[in-house]
Request: fold
Amino acid sequence: MSTIIKFEEFLGLASFFCYNIGIKLWGPNDGFWLNFWLCLTSINLFLTVFAECIYIIMTIRSDFIVAIMTLSYVSFIVVAYVKWYYLYNYQTERNAFFQRLDALFPHTKSEQESIKLSEYFRLNKLATRGYTITFMVVIWIYNLYTISQRLIYTQLLHVHIERVLPYQAMYPWDWRDNWTYYVIYVTQGFAGFHATCAQIAYDLLLCILSIQLIMHYDHISRSLEGYQTKFAEVHGIDINNGLPPLTCAAVELRAVKEDIKLISNIVSYHNELLSLSMSLNKLFGMPLFVNFFTSSAIICFLSFQMSVTREVDLLMKLAVFLFFSVMQVYLICHFGQLLSDASTNVASAAYFQDWSYADVRFQKMTILVAQRAQEAAALKATNFITISLDTMTVIMQISYKFFTVLRTMYAD
Reply:
């Protein structure tokens, strides 16, 4: 690792998307223009989702399929608003969390090499960039699809088609044949983009902080399992050979002190990580619960739409949205599983550590670490859902049940 990596570098993309919705990720949300942008973007998003809700109410009986499609957009925006709310209103708690995590972060080159920071930084870049690119492709496909379709038909094929908005909504005037069409189109495009920014910022932040905790748990595991006690080293040689009894006792006491110092630091380090894991769940618990609940609905709505649609271009559009929705759930569940595994691996490392040849005080403290690590420090969507790869299976099952209900309603 040639250069020293800073903690802020992990937060790069999440911080960028927070700025796009008028929120400073780390530090006070001061500045007139930042707050002005926050108000402007949130009001525009509210007006857009309100118009979509009116459309659903007015067309649910006459055009059930399109209403269901619009409902998936509304569900997406609801999750974005919840995440937006928590990003803005929990700044104090988030800043305190960052400060505690930064205090644990390795700042020197030797510390970063010891903790293998470069590996986790590569994982961070892979996850955040891959997720961002996928999300951006989805939102701009939806934002530009209708206007691109109209340009192709009118300019290339010379076939007249009526103007259509990227997201179905109802407004109290006829916007199809005047300049307000372009204004509404742009505002809907910005609304979709800013809802996406809120989603990306929150999801990336969750993954970034999970990677940080995983890195520290793995470091504890390696430190414990690879450590040979000084007490064992001392008794591995014949310290009584030619040495006075008092000198032998002093050598043994010094070895015990070094062992106790190391295990005490590990206990303190592990306690802080467990506390940070609990704080992480307080910051992300409720938004995750809403996210999983609405993701089940979105996957259901999109699957239903695909099952009754015969237009190839619309099918591809729906497939892209469905792929992203599944990917979003998988990403969160994947890092939840990694965090759970990393925290419980500490117990295994403590067990396999060669503690049988250590001082009794070292043994007791090692047992304490193992006992605390047996309960996984998992991500939790409130107290109802512990996030792991099994959670994804549950969500897909719930989505399928909703899907069968919708199909039955549509058939009747």
Notes: The mean pLDDT is 86. DSSP finds 13 helices and two strands in the chain. Residues 9-411 form one domain. Strands lie at 380-381, 385-386.
